[in-house]
Amino acid sequence: MSDNKEHGLETLSIHTACGPDPSTGARTIPIHQTTAFVFDDAEHGADLFALKKAGFVYSRLTNPTVGALEEKLAALDGGVASTCAASGHAAQLLVLTALMAPGDHVVSSCKLYGGSVNQFAQIFPDMFGWESTTFNPASAEEAKAALTPKTKAIFAESLSNPEGVVADIEGLAKVAYEAGIPLIIDNTMATPYLCKPLDHGAHIVTYSTTKFLSGHGNAMGGAVVDGGKFDWSKHADKYPRLAKPNANYNDMVFCEAFGPAALAIHNHAVGLRDLGMNQQPFNAYLTFIGLETLALRMQKHCENALEIAQHLESHEKIAWVSYAGLSSSEHNVNAHKYMKGQGGAVFTVGMKGGYDACTTMVKELELFSHLANIGDTRSLIIHPASTTHSQLDSEARAKAGAGDDVLRISIGIETTEDLIADLDRVLNMV
Ligand code: PLP
């Protein structure tokens, strides 16, 4: 497509980087299931290795099928470029390796997905020497108070998994701007259908594409979208990998050579090259095709989730529902500001019958799959206290929002009446 900026999300999600293939006329993209790419001649090979020419060398760094997905993801968020990774966790690691050194610090939301909490609180400090301090994502003041001279980024989920806390993206962007550091937003739960963090001042967006972007529970993946607006050269001492000579590439300075796409190119040319967490072409293909129906799916996910959350909120067996789409939610104001007034597809409920009622629900429901995922066309359910958070004691579980009485539900795009009937049938048993 000639000028992406003119088109709406639905058009971009179908037409961006989508052929037809010039050599065969194939209407949709081929899966380039190849490890390496033949050079035209010796000079071509040398130029590709020195990053003097764009092109394909080896699929750990770049691959045409993965590249098509990267182009589409950048277009959907209004970024300059993006980099796909093997998973959402890999994307988070990838972006931070470009920005952080041992002893550095990141300010991270206290409402991250549990696996990310573990990454930031345990693994990053233990393995890489990256310290973190948490803050409430709805409070820019708390983020500001957590900054240290070593802070290299602020990281938050736009819409948190699972409680649906909506981050104050504009407030956080202002704090980041004043501190001369980038704001990184994990937009996995919202997707560009509900929220475009770059439009609210964020500098970088990360995804677990495993969830709503691929949308069918069949492809692991992650991505880092580079907004292209952060001026690395102004903060060269803080971000030497992007703004100082790189000995591996003939002392090239990434932000001088690649301008606004410096981070995205670094993520390929150094991050993926040296850490090796590239996305596989078949997964990229599945996500690329899944994205074609992103808007349709998200609309139905949100409509279904709102109707079911409202139904459960007034059900006698349910103590509470935590869903930003409900007008009773404390996050509803920010949902109007950042999420088109909607709450996405995931929420938590508190069962009056406690632990036993939760285990009956996950056992007896027929249309809800009991598993550890979100963002599938199918409705999904999990009881964190007996699964993902079972290693914690009950006090720690309650603090993490995973008390004995909590169920996490990811609403699919099935017929709403059928989902409600299934829930009511089992609620009658507890
Ligand atoms: N971010 C969020 C909001 C998630 O929900 C998840 C996984 O559930 C991740 C990141 C990690 O993604 P992945 O499982 O693709 O590594």
- What would the average pLDDT be, to the nearest integer? 96
- Low-confidence parts, pLDDT < 50 over ≥5 residues? none
Categorize the overall geometry: globular
Proportion of residues in β-strands: 5-15%
Helix content: 25-40%
Radius of gyration equals 22 Å
CATH superfamily of the largest domain: Type I PLP-dependent aspartate aminotransferase-like (Major domain)
Q: Which class best fits the helix and strand makeup? A: alpha/beta
Tell me how many strands there are.
Answer: 12
Give the strand line-up of the largest sheet. Answer: 1-7-6-5-4-2-3
* CATH architectural label of the largest domain: 3-Layer(aba) Sandwich
Distance between the termini: 55 Å
How many helix segments? 17
Q: In the residues, how many domains can be counted?
A: 2
Main sheet record: 7 strands, mixed
- CATH topology of the largest domain, what is it called? Aspartate Aminotransferase, domain 2
Secondary-structure element order, as H and E?
HHHEHEHEHEHEHEEHHHHHEHEHEEHEH
Helix/strand layout:
Elements: H1 9-15, H2 42-49, H3 64-77, E1 81-85, H4 88-99, E2 105-109, H5 114-128, E3 131-135, H6 140-145, E4 151-157, H7 169-179, E5 183-186, H8 191-194, E6 204-208, E7 222-226, H9 240-243, H10 254-258, H11 262-275, H12 281-291, H13 294-313, E8 318-322, H14 332-338, E9 346-351, H15 354-364, E10 368-370, E11 379-382, H16 394-399, E12 406-410, H17 416-427
Parallel strand pairs: 2-3, 2-4, 4-5, 5-6, 10-11
Antiparallel strand pairs: 1-7, 6-7, 8-9, 9-12, 11-12
Helix pairs in contact: 3-12, 4-11
Pyridoxal-5'-phosphate is lined by residues 87-89, 113, 115-116, 157, 161, 186, 188-189, 208, 210, 220, 222, 374.
